[in-house]
Amino acid sequence: MNAPADPHAITSLTQLEALFGAVAAPSLQKEVDYLHPAYQALIQASPFAVLATVGPGGLDASPRGDPPGFVAIQDDRTLLLPERRGNNRIDSLRNLLVDPRVALLLLIPGVGETLRVNGRARITTGPDILQRFSMEGKPPHCVIVIHVESVFFQCARAIQRSRLWQATPPGRPDVPTPGAMLQALTAAAIDGEQYDRELPARQKSTLY
């Protein structure tokens, strides 16, 4: 049975713009097509980003993180993002092979504003560039070279509403552990308790 049509669905740009109203001038003026020095300062302070890509299998958004400045500024229109070891799904990289479009959302702990970068990317394994991003003597698998097309900061309302940077009580919140999730998702083919016991040491030894 087909679901009934939503009589309140927004289906046109005219409806959408009427719902939200006009864009404030600063929201348009803050968008530029290069890495302004003010934006470079945010990039250099950020230890965490979310990388979004698109490919034949759909969309992907995945976390990236390292010490602040891990997203390196090559020039005012180029960013370098090292691709370190993970779970080897390489969803983002698979997408880049067929569609170079990327988006980055950079966050800085304690700062409400986030930085959004849109552009096009390619993957390189040049020896010099890999060595530049070595950590603990280990280079990344590859580096994503991003040609910047659009940059702007996002206002702090989402961070303020979520209270993301407010102090949290010690200990893990009451949510499933990785082992518990895997045990549930695999009908207990994976022993969740064993997975959780071994995970901290495995992560520490394979961080880079």
Automatic annotation (TrEMBL):
InterPro entries: Pyridox_Oxase_FMN-dep, Pyridox_Oxase_N, Split_barrel_FMN-bd. Residues 35-155 form the Pyridoxamine 5'-phosphate oxidase N-terminal domain. Signal peptide: none annotated. It comes from the Bacteria. SUPFAM superfamilies: FMN-binding split barrel (SSF50475). This is Pyridoxamine 5'-phosphate oxidase family protein.
